[in-house]
Amino acid sequence: MEKIKTYLTIFSILLLPVSVSASQEDPP
């Protein structure tokens, strides 16, 4: 169970910058 939690945490950290850049590139 700990492995899954760690995997999800890393996944979220990796996805955070992607969503931020995606929202910034989004046309107004």
UniProtKB/TrEMBL annotation:
Domain of life where this protein originates: Bacteria
What's the protein here called? Uncharacterized protein
- Recorded source organism is Candidatus Regiella insecticola 5.15
Give the source lineage, highest ranks first.
Bacteria, Pseudomonadati, Pseudomonadota, Gammaproteobacteria, Enterobacterales
